[in-house]
Design a protein that fits this description.
This protein has 471 residues and is an all-alpha fold. Among the domains are: 62 residues; 224 residues, no CATH class. Helix content is 73%, strand content 0%. The protein contains 24 helices and no strands. Helix 9 runs antiparallel to helix 11. The N and C termini lie far apart (62 Å).
Length: 471
């Protein structure tokens, strides 16, 4: 008898979970079609973990099933594709493509290595600096960490005679891989455009908590604890995984050589730098001009087109942007339907008696910790956010937790929680794949990193948010 294929098991797990909920008894107070909506939503989240197909096709499957069964009208299912949040992310992906094609991102990273890379610790700070500069305008933390910086990390380690397969990993490669991976998560947390799924948290904060947690608010709340985290990270990793080599002059020389090969700043790179400054300026001064975050991002795309930095063919060939449009737009539509059909309210009501009598602040902190460490069970940040944020927001709101504080905890923890495993998100997988750190050690350091983040963001962060009047 032939054994079931891996794909077969993935499909069985995905469809089995959906069918089990679909045909289960409908709870009192929930309409049958709302319960079926929950079944399809849950199966979609499971598919993100089992991955029988990429996210885009699975979200399309969910939309088709919901429409074909009459669970939700099709016009409501496609409404998510018109959401401003979705088009913000699409524009940011298009800009990120220009950052890579013009060489702007690589030049920034190599320049920082040239300036600060005399020691291995200095290289760690150069990686943090590169992440900080690129974080606001490269919305895919995988593109930023895995596409731009991880290859630089590998070449730097090799130039220092540190390789993964000959017993020299601890010279520098292990240290640089860990700093690169964890710096990526900090900058992903600091900016709403630092990770593709971050806008989903912002949207849930608006819909459930009724607070505006847009780009400016997100960056304002994250800037202080984020800078503290980036400032301490290279030193903390130096303690957790000390490199045998402390003098990295060879890597500094290599960066100088590669910059020399790149030549002078090109016209495209200078314009890309100007667009970068323009976007940050407009995003941070929304109160003065009133333009939304998405509109500002598309201004950046238009400037790149009018200045001919990028061709329209390059723009339209960015498959990551259009893939994100499909899965993010579809998920937002389904999430909105869950809210409109009363599923989130039903869950919040069901949980109210469990938190009755518990102070709202305590509920928010406990839920945030549960949310943080539940990432052990997820292999994708998007699935983690989609599965839990809306429901946890509803419970915190029912308990009387401060809305802005609740939004902040979940917004920043949504990225920081990826620190614990080697399978949590794209850039972590790529850095781990360089081979410098073995699995058990990655997990041990990951748990130590979770304590590092919680100490900073529940210490410095809470103090900063108190000054901002968020609680």
């Amino acid at each position: 008898m032939p054994k079931p294929t891996t794909e077969g098991w993935r499909w069985a797990a995905t469809l089995g979970v959906g069918a089990a909920i679909w045909f289960a008894p409908v709870p009192v107070g929930v309409a049958p079609h709302a319960w079926h909506l929950l079944a399809v939503f849950t199966a979609t989240i499971v598919s993100f973990l089992t991955r029988p197909l990429p996210m885009g096709p699975m979200v399309l499957l969910a939309i088709v099933v919901l429409g074909a069964t009459g669970t939700i009208e099709f016009k409501h299912l496609v409404a998510g594709f018109g959401d401003g949040t979705v088009w913000l992310v699409v524009a940011a992906f298009l800009i990120a493509g220009s950052v890579q094609r013009t060489g702007f991102g690589r030049r920034v990273a190599l320049s920082l290595v040239q300036w600060f890379g005399k020691s291995t610790l200095g290289l760690g700070y150069a990686l943090c600096g590169a992440e900080l500069v690129l974080g606001p305008v490269v919305p895919s933390n995988t593109a930023r960490g895995g596409g731009i910086l991880a290859p630089i990390v590998q070449s730097l380690a090799t130039s220092l005679d540190s390789r993964a397969d000959d017993g020299t990993a601890e010279r520098a490669g292990s240290y640089l891989s860990l700093v690169g991976a964890h710096a990526n998560l900090i900058t992903a947390a600091m900016f709403m455009t630092g990770m593709a799924a971050n806008p989903m948290v912002s949207k849930a904060a608006t819909d459930v908590l009724k607070v505006d947690f847009g780009w400016g608010t997100w960056a304002l709340g994250g800037i202080v604890p984020g800078l503290v985290g980036l400032g301490l990270l290279p030193l903390y990793i130096l303690w957790l995984s000390p490199p045998e080599l402390r003098d990295s002059s060879a890597a500094q020389q290599q960066a100088k050589h590669e910059l020399t090969q790149m030549g002078a700043w090109s016209r495209s790179q200078l314009i890309m730098g100007g667009v970068f400054v323009l976007l940050l300026s407009l995003w941070s001064t929304k109160v003065l001009h009133g333009m939304g975050t998405g509109l500002v991002a598309w201004i950046g795309v238009l400037v790149l087109q009018l200045s001919q930095v990028d061709s329209w063919e390059d723009i339209t060939h960015n498959h990551k942007a259009w893939d994100c449009l499909i899965w993010l737009g579809g998920l937002l539509a389904i999430a909105n339907a869950l809210k409109e059909e009363g599923v989130i309210a039903w869950f919040a009501t069901a949980m109210e008696h469990r938190v009755e009598g518990v102070e709202g602040m305590t509920v928010a902190l406990v839920l945030a910790l549960v949310y943080f460490y539940s990432m052990y069970a997820f292999s994708m940040l998007t699935a983690h956010i989609t599965a839990m944020v809306g429901a946890f927001f509803a419970v915190a709101l029912a308990a009387g937790a401060p809305p802005l504080l609740t939004a902040a905890l979940f917004a920043y923890f949504s990225c920081l929680c990826a620190c614990m495993t080697n399978y949590s998100t794209g850039p972590v997988i790529i850095y781990f794949g360089l081979g410098y750190v073995e699995v058990g050690r990655w997990f041990r350091i990951g748990f130590a990193m979770s304590l590092f983040h919680l100490t900073i963001w529940l210490g410095v962060g809470m103090g900063w948010w108190k000054l901002l009047g968020w609680w």
